[in-house]
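The records we work with from here on pair a chain with its fold. A complete example follows; check for yourself that the lines match position by position.
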Amino acid sequence: INSDLVAPSAVPLNYGGRKNATAKIPKALIEKEILEIIECFGRTAAILKKAGFTGIQIHGAHGYLVSQFLSPYTNTREDKWGGTIENRAKFVIEVYRKIREKVGDDFPIGIKLNSADFQKGGFSENESMEVIKMLSKEGIDLIEISGGTYEAPVMMGKRNESTQRREAYFMDYVEKAKKITTTPLMLTGGFRTASVMRDAITSEQVDVIGIARPLAVFPNLANELFAGKRTNFSTII
């Protein structure tokens, strides 16, 4: 999409092998550029607050920049921004701190975070749990759980039997995460019936239900769910 690609490391997007001749190779960011991007996150959040938004979310999943820094597959740096999970998480922690500095303590900040990348050498479930602990300690207001990247789009594939029954893709992960944080957790991906969403909330498996594709098709879906006018949208796959 972008003519000039940058990333934590010079690792191209893999649609069929990392040596794909058509893949653009991004330029590895230098530290000055990393700090500038962190500043941009904060400035953008301040603009959104001024424009009237009542909260913001950092996209830290699906192989975008924050996700790339977290993953050892795309972050092969040997400086303080790479290596250990503490170093790879430094970027998202600094992004959060900069945003908080710009918007104040009473403005909600959330993040969409991968439960895992689901690709060999990528961001693992154990590492994701560590990042949840770090962000919770920092005081983030909401953590939305997702998973996969454009190279491993797990939310687009077939679901196993247990996942089909529970609808949500990452419920097992959320149940584990619930044990290590008191930060509200939002689960997105797979929910298709009001009864299953209601059960997930009342059983305290999750704190917030996230829906994406159904909401794109039915823009008034939230109101329709609460009014009981639409209870099943399982044809939206």
